[in-house]
Design brief:
Elements (H helix, E strand, L loop, with lengths): L2 H20 L6 H13 L7 H4 E2 L6 H7 L16 E3 L4 H14 L2 E5 L16 E5 L6 E4 L4 E5 L4 H11 L3 E2 L10 H7 L6 H4 L6 E7 L5 E2 L1 H4 L1 H7 L9 E8 L1 E2 L4 E5 L3 E2 L4 H11 L7 E12 L2 E12 L3 H11 L10 E4 L1 H8 L24 E8 L5 H11 L6 E6 L22 E8 L8 H14 L27 H13 L3 H11 L15
Parallel strand pairs: 2-4, 3-4
Antiparallel strand pairs: 1-2, 5-6, 6-10, 7-11, 8-9, 8-10, 12-15, 12-16, 13-15, 14-15, 14-18, 17-19, 18-19
Length: 531
């Protein structure tokens, strides 16, 4: 760094030190200068460090920090903000960020898309640095080899778009929301419309580039199979920073079929239909995925519970109708409910955040689809069909979380044929379907946040007898701090939420954590604890 530039930077950070001290960030002048010099020392010559490192005074700081926050519940005056935001453009930059953050004695948060339901990828209750992977979003597709390389800062929409741009016969089994970041999604498992056919995103990962807590950059061979196992479903922000994933593409036909049924009231035949869906959807051919969505319509106190079904099928409409007429005629799917498209068009069409007529280029817009108002979500897994009597009782409680919804995804298929120990994601054989409980409210209701949070909690508590037990399981990608947080109790305190996400795999994750991050640098309220 030139003397003139160093003088300018030092002056800048002198000003910043006053601001940060007032904000309680704990980063003084000496530490700020040390941090910047450390980043410069650990990056290649001529690196524009001032573009990689943003302080609270940087013009782009607020834009970068706010852009990926998908849950407005965590946008409020006085919300925790990072001392620095680092936007690396290579694995070397990530290594520098890790080494220098650790050297400064600060915590770290790593964000790829910002969909973390509890905001742990961009907020902390201690002074921290945010490593935002927004500039690590390159996707390279190799159709002849049936694989692709995708950096963790890319969104699912970007990944899907570039796969389709290079090949019409391949896809990838991951989530249905295109603005989700690849890094966090893959790290927690990653389920979607192709899961019953090909498993999770994490089941189709071949290799990865990881920056460890000591700054070492490793691939699968160098990291060893234990760490490679842990990063494919063990949750983001636990073992290192995955910079890039090598994924196995899966075959898709030239035509797939989507369908949506008419909505039906639960008290006018919907309960009987949903009751059968529970038993049929997990047992259908692997090519068919049918999601049930339960929601409330009308106005509060004059509302009713309804259900609709959205399907995805790897084949033509005529093939789909043949399958359904034999296995699930009660669903009443007809030609008018169906739409044939390419796989990439189905990605856009399956998500209701996109409008008819928008081209697939909209998948490249990482800010196109927002979740709306503040929200709270929780999750469950169901292993035995719920009786009609109990379902009717559930609808009565569900009405109380107006205007919430329940999103239910069937399992079975390939998920029954992959061992629960193959990756950290254990919710496999015997699972009929998953539930996501979702309640959102308008920003004007922020003062009533406690009431809104309690609504979804009441439904969740009521569902206890009807869902998986010992432990009651949850999906780590729908992170839920109500399950418990880390504290002075260490391992024993973390075991309750840990086994909910990972069941018997939690023990192995803890042992791996102790080996690869013995100083617990990658930590949060729900990070894998040390042994």
């Amino acid at each position: 760094m030139s003397p003139i530039l160093l003088l300018a930077v030092s002056s800048f950070f002198f000003l910043f030190s006053s601001v940060s001290a007032a904000a309680g960030l704990g980063v003084g002048l000496v530490r700020s200068s040390t941090f910047l010099n450390c980043i410069s020392h650990h990056t290649p010559p001529l690196t524009h460090v001032n573009k990689l490192v943003l302080s609270v005074l940087a013009p782009k700081y607020q834009n970068i920090f706010q852009a990926s926050i998908q849950n407005p519940r965590f946008k409020f005056p006085g919300a925790p903000t990072p001392a620095f935001i680092i936007t690396p453009e290579s694995a070397v930059h990530v290594r520098a960020a890790v080494v220098c953050t650790k050297g400064l004695g600060l915590a770290v948060r790593v964000r790829s898309g910002g969909h973390d339901y509890e905001g742990l990828s961009y907020r902390a209750n201690e002074p921290f640095v945010l490593i935002d992977l927004v500039n690590l979003r390159k996707v390279r597709v190799f159709p002849k080899r049936g694989m692709a390389k995708v950096q963790s800062g890319a969104t699912l929409g970007e990944l899907y778009y570039w796969i389709a741009n290079r090949t019409k016969t391949h896809g990838f089994p991951a989530g249905t929301c295109p603005t989700i970041g690849v890094g966090g999604h893959f790290s927690g498992g990653g389920k979607g419309t192709l899961t019953r056919k090909y498993g999770l995103a994490a089941d189709n990962i071949l290799d990865a580039i990881v920056v460890k807590a000591d700054g070492e950059i490793v691939n699968r061979e160098a990291m060893g199979e234990d760490l490679f196992w842990a990063i494919r479903g063990g949750g983001g922000g636990n073992f290192g920073i995955v910079v890039e994933w090598t994924i196995k593409l899966v075959p898709v036909p030239s035509k797939v079929t989507l369908f949506s049924t008419d909505e039906i009231e639960m008290y006018d035949g919907g309960t009987d239909l949903f009751y059968k869906w529970q038993k049929i959807a997990p047992m259908l051919v692997d090519d068919l995925f049918i999601r049930a969505t339960i929601y409330i319509t009308g106005i509060e106190y004059l509302s009713t519970v309804k259900v609709s079904f959205n399907g995805f099928f790897l084949g033509t409409t005529s093939e789909l109708l043949s399958v359904l007429s034999a296995a699930f005629p009660e669903l009443g799917v007809m030609q008018k409910h169906c739409r044939e498209s390419s796989w990439i068009e189905s990605v856009k069409a399956f998500n209701d955040g996109y409008k008819e007529g928008e081209t697939i280029e909209v998948l490249l817009d990482r800010n196109h689809y927002k979740t709306g108002g503040p929200f709270k979500a929780k999750s469950d897994f169901v292993t035995q069909a719920i009786s009609r009597k109990r379902l009717k009782a559930i609808w009565q409680v569900f009405l109380d979380i107006y205007p919430g919804m329940m999103i239910l995804d069937p399992y079975g298929g390939m998920m029954d044929r992959i061992s629960e120990f193959e990756t950290p994601f254990p919710h496999r054989k015997g699972t009929l379907y998953s539930i996501q409980y979702y309640n959102n409210w308008s920003p004007m209701e922020a003062a009533d946040e406690k009431k809104n949070l309690n609504r979804v909690k009441r439904l969740y508590n009521f569902m206890g007898p009807f869902v998986s037990k010992n432990p009651r399981a949850s999906y780590v990608n729908y992170r839920d701090l109500d399950l418990g947080v880390n504290g002075n109790g260490g391992y024993n305190e973390s075991k309750r939420w840990g086994e909910s996400y990972f069941k018997g795999n939690f023990e192995r994750l803890v042992k791996i954590k102790g080996k690869v991050d013995p100083e617990n640098f990658f930590r949060s309220e729900q990070s894998i604890p040390l042994p």
